[in-house]
Amino acid sequence: EVQLLESGGGLVQPGGSLRLSCAASGFTFSSYVMSWVRQAPGEGLEWVSSLGTSVGKTYYSDSVRGRFTISRDNSKNTLYLQMNSLRAEDTAVYYCANSVISWGQGTLVTVSS
Amino acid sequence: DIVMTQTPLSSPVTLGQPASISCRSSQSLVHSDGNTYLSWLQQRPGQPPRLLIYKISNRFSGVPDRFSGSGAGTDFTLKISRVEAEDVGIYYCMQASQFPLTFGGGTKVEIK
Predict the structure, then answer these.
(1) Mean pLDDT within B91-101
(2) pLDDT over 90 (residue B59)
(3) Residue A7 C-alpha, separation from nearest chain B C-alpha, in angstroms
(4) What's the pLDDT band for B20 if we cut at 50, 70, 90?
(5) Distances (CA, A) of B38 to A30, A38, B112
(6) What are phi and psi of B85, to 5 degrees?
(7) Distance from A47 to chain B by nearest Cα, in Å?
(8) CB contact under 8 A, A103 and B39
(9) Between chains, do A35 and B48 touch, taking CB under 8 Å as contact?
(10) What does the DSSP 8-state code read for residue B27?
(11) B55 and chain A: CB distance < 8 Å anywhere?
């Protein structure tokens, strides 16, 4: 059974940093494009970033490029999202997904003073 | 960026009756590899999204056969042949043919 478990969310002040993790199991992690998608309270889905199976293949939305960094550790079956210079508009539930096939339960990030 | 436009915004349906959701993309979703990466996701209240349909018309594992997808190019449709109570939620179309990945605004399916 595919499982994706996000962690690392929480309350952070504007300008602060957080690192999200997504622990994957039940599939060959290294073979899949992995993505982060977020959902602001009461809003729709917004793609944030994706990481290909090949080294260097990273993709970011314009809203996070230069502030967020996606990475993976295939030896630990874990996906990461380093989020710096956080803004109030980054407040959302962050989901990880393997090629949008399976989704985790999400982790809530709240950016507020 | 490819803009995904869904209609209607809301779809009140009687139990057992059909429902249909349309999704239009601002440009063709045919990828250079010949595939069209158009998916439909369901999000029940308080739950994460769940994949229903991928590549226009392929039902994902475990998805009931009352759900079907169709379309081509820039126009796509999700149909529920007979709506059940567990189908209540928001439905999103999504394209993965090119980055940035983009989602439709969502269609809320509710019971009349």
Answers:
(1) 97
(2) yes
(3) 15
(4) very high
(5) 23, 19, 29
(6) -60, -35
(7) 6
(8) no
(9) no
(10) S
(11) no
- Distance separating alpha carbons of residues B82 and B60, to the nearest angstrom: 18
- Chunk chain A into consecutive blocks of 10 residues (it has 113) and report each block's average pLDDT, rounded to whole numbers: 97 98 96 96 97 86 98 94 98 95 96 97
| Cβ pair A47:B39 closer than 8 A | no
CA distance A41 to A50: 22
Q: How many Cβ atoms sit within 10 Å of the Cβ of residue B86? A: 9
3-state SS, residue B70: strand
- Distance (Å, rounded) from C-alpha B7 to C-alpha B108? 10
Give strand ranges (E) for chain A: 3-7, 10-12, 18-25, 34-39, 45-51, 58-60, 68-73, 78-83, 92-98, 102-103, 107-111
Mutation target for B interface from A4, A46, A47, A98: give the one with most B CBs within 10 A: A47
